[in-house]
Amino acid sequence: MEAKQMLGKGISRVHKQKVRAQSITQALVIVESSLTALLLSY
After folding, report:
1. How far apart are CA 41 and CA 38, in angstroms?
2. From CA 41, how far away is CA 36, in angstroms rounded?
3. What is the average per-residue pLDDT within 9-32?
4. d(CA 28, CA 22)
5. pTM surpassing 0.90?
């Protein structure tokens, strides 16, 4: 396998992990803010 191909695969894998981490972080922020809103409404 060429070095370029390996590098490309590594970069795309890292990028996928970053995107997944971002979506998880966004979901956590949404959950946190909705919980805060619920607590404030009581």
Report:
1. 5
2. 9
3. 96
4. 10
5. no
